[in-house]
Amino acid sequence: MKNIQKLVCLPVAMLLLIVFTAMNVKPKKIIFFGDSITQQGVAPGGYVDLIRKSLDPTKYEVIGAGIGGNKVYDLYLRMEEDVLAKKPDLVVIYIGVNDVWHKQSMHTGTDYDKFISFYQALINKIQAAGAKVVLCTPAVIGEKKNNANEMDADLDKYSGAIRDLATKNKLPLCDLRTLFKNYSEKNNSSDVAKGILTTDGVHLNDKGNQTLAEVLIPFLK
Fold first, then answer.
1. Sheet containing 60-66: which strands, arranged edge to edge?
2. Which of the listed residues 1, 99, 121, 159 has the most CB atoms within 10 Å of its CB?
3. pLDDT tens digit string along 28-62?
4. Close Cβ partners of 162 (under 8 Å, ≥ 6 residues apart)
5. Domain map of the chain by residue range?
6. Residue pair 118/95 in contact by the 8 Å Cβ criterion
7. Which residues lie below 8 Å from residue 199, measured CB to CB, with a gap of 6+?
8. Rounded to whole angstroms, how far apart are CA atoms 23 and 15?
9. Is the pLDDT of residue 85 over 80?
10. CA-CA distance, 42 to 72, in Å (whole number)?
11. Contact present, 51 and 62 (Cβ < 8 Å)
């Protein structure tokens, strides 16, 4: 009789254990790490906001860690407080626009070799903390076709560096540079510098935010 009771109780105990374990599973923490594009992406309708709303909150916690004007070394300097201290499971790095753009607009920017060094250091520290990493190439500084924007050559060069880093470190890459250029080729019939996926040639409009959210979501799952 006692053996029968044990057999009856065992499945119940296992069921309770499974339920208890499920209730205590923490959601996967995802941090989007970047500049003003990511900072604006947290606002309603922004790409971070759209991604957060599309994912199951019991399985995913989505955090935006973007600050306007940031370059790759700014991310490195604030990484401990804004990213690693939050113990993320996954970090999406989206940086590079200001590293190129500010060379002209503010005469600062980031030298190519330093950009690669700081970016690799970012990857190293995030991985050492136990988080996975997804890399993104910078999308556009102007939406004209056929490399007609003033900084297209530099942006292609820095995007190429990020592609190489993804290959070297065996990391997933979301190639926004290629995506946005191809989209403009097909949809920018008037060859305008803004208003296709951006509001000003850099920051995303509603369609840009939606496009970015849709292409990033598969990398998170």
1. 60-66, 28-34, 90-94, 132-136, 173-174
2. 99
3. 999 999 999 999 999 999 999 999 999 999 999 99
4. 96, 119, 135, 136, 137, 138, 173
5. 28-220
6. no
7. 205
8. 12
9. yes
10. 20
11. yes
| All residues at 6 or more sequence positions from 38 whose CB lies less than 8 Å from its CB, including other chains | 32, 48, 64, 65, 66, 94
Residues 87, 88, 91, 97, CA torsion sign: negative
Residue with tokens 């922004």: 46
* Cβ-contact 60, 28 below 8 angstroms: yes
Length reported for the chain: 221
Label residue 15 by pLDDT band (50, 70, 90).
low
Tens digits of residue pLDDT in 132-147? 999 999 999 999 999 9
User: What does the alpha-carbon distance between residue 139 and residue 177 come to, in Å, rounded to a whole number?
Assistant: 4
Q: Which CATH class is domain 28-220?
A: alpha beta
In sign, the C-alpha dihedral spanning 4, 7, 12, 17 is positive
